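Retry 2 of 3 after timeout on previous attempt. Resubmitting structure tokens to design endpoint.
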């Protein structure tokens, strides 16, 4: 069956079967990643443009790798050296790109809603690579994929997301994705780092990590943007780590072989004790690998998803 959405802008509103279809499509994509020759003819003649107005290591390189494996031509607009610096508007930048007739545009932007705005203006499929504090859909999909690889279904599983929920597009996308697939989600953080409207998200909220740990199948720590302390949202990094850092002592309280996840980049010793990052419970590097497979799947489906990809 053909995929009918032109864009992937958010997780909120995707149906369980749409989410699962992307995850199922990512499975053969991951197998292709491990072939000796990692190149498909699927996207021959197609072009993918990366348009990143904010810094990125994982998302940008992952989309680029994914597009190349699928056989697409890829290009990245170096925003720092582009005419954006000469005052060109986002819309004019995008119209210029559209004139080159790309098939897919991946955009990361500091403004929530930027990906939606662009998607309405251009014919190409648009993938949201993170917009402001709104959503980061492919991050949530790769997180789900990683959880499913280890846990099977996430239905009924206890997933703790801890940290700066207020500023986190990763948390928002994960909440929608996990709720849609029936997981039990607990959001934990200091009151200053939780959004005011959080009670409407329909998940459990807590300020006390230690009280929530028992039975956790997954703990996902979010990156703490260190400038939050300067803005007075945190008394000190040391106090944050004491209350919300993932330590060996805390991990024992789950009484389970809990998976440790993080979208990256990690502040070692702040969100997670350094030795845990390299332990067998940490799946942080697997998240990065799965990111390529999931992004291959998303691009493949947006392009129609009907050609025979695995041969
Ligand atoms: N997880 C994530 O979005 O990382 P980057 O900022 O490096 O892309």
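Retry 2 succeeded. Sequence:
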């Amino acid at each position: 069956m053909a995929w009918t959405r032109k864009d992937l802008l958010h997780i909120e509103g995707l149906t369980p079967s749409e989410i699962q279809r992307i995850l199922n499509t990512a499975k053969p994509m991951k197998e292709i990643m491990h072939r000796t020759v990692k190149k498909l003819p699927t996207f021959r003649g197609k072009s993918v443009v990366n348009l990143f107005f904010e810094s990125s290591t994982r998302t940008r390189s992952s989309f680029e790798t994914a597009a190349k494996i699928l056989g697409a031509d890829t290009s990245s607009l170096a925003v720092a050296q582009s005419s954006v610096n000469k005052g060109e508007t986002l819309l004019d930048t995008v119209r210029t790109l559209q004139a080159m007739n790309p098939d897919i545009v991946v955009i990361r932007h500091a403004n929530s809603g930027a990906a939606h705005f662009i998607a309405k203006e251009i014919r190409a499929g648009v993938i949201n690579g993170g917009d402001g504090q709104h959503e980061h859909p492919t991050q949530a999909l790769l997180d789900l994929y990683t959880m499913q690889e280890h846990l099977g279904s996430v239905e009924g599983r206890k997933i703790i997301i801890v940290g700066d929920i207020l500023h986190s597009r990763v948390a928002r996308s994960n909440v929608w994705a996990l709720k849609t697939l029936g997981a039990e989600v607990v959001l934990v953080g200091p009151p200053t780092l939780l959004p005011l409207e959080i009670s409407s998200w329909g998940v459990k909220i807590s300020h006390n990590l230690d009280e929530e740990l028992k039975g956790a199948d997954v703990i996902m720590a979010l990156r703490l943007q260190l400038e939050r302390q300067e803005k007075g949202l945190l008394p000190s990094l040391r106090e944050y780590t004491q209350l919300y850092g993932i330590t060996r002592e805390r991990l024992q309280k789950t009484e389970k072989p809990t998976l440790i996840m993080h979208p990256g980049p990690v502040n070692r010793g702040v969100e997670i004790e350094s030795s845990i990052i390299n332990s067998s419970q940490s799946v942080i590097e697997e998240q990065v690998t799965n990111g390529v497979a999931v992004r291959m799947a998303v691009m493949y489906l947006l392009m129609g998803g009907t050609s025979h990809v695995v041969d």
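Attempt log closed. The chain has a mean pLDDT of 93.
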